[in-house]
Hints:
Elements: E1 7-10, E2 20-23, H1 24-37, E3 45-46, H2 50-57, H3 60-66, H4 69-82, E4 86-88, E5 96-99
Antiparallel strand pairs: 1-2, 3-5, 4-5
Helix pairs in contact: 1-2, 1-4, 2-4
Amino acid sequence: xxxxxxxxxxxxxxxxxxxxxxxxxxxxxxxxxxxxxxxxxxxxxxxxxxxxxxxxxxxxxxxxxxxxxxxxxxxxxxxxxxxxxxxxxxxxxxxxxxxxx
Length: 101
């Protein structure tokens, strides 16, 4: 069982940028939603659609628990990039993402 007070340190690929601490419960909800919508193929998913896709994967209760879905989606996405779980597709405009694992 996840401790509701437990925090996760989310890193960013931007050098010199300080990490952000968020609740593990929120991190896991958003991470699982991202993994369910970001494909492994070369097409990927546009980043600008990611918050809506994540929102659609969450229940009303989960959405209420998370709060700002766009902010948490971006924060968790950046941490997942650092952990090499997802990656930006080079040369894509707008930014597109795919799974690496």
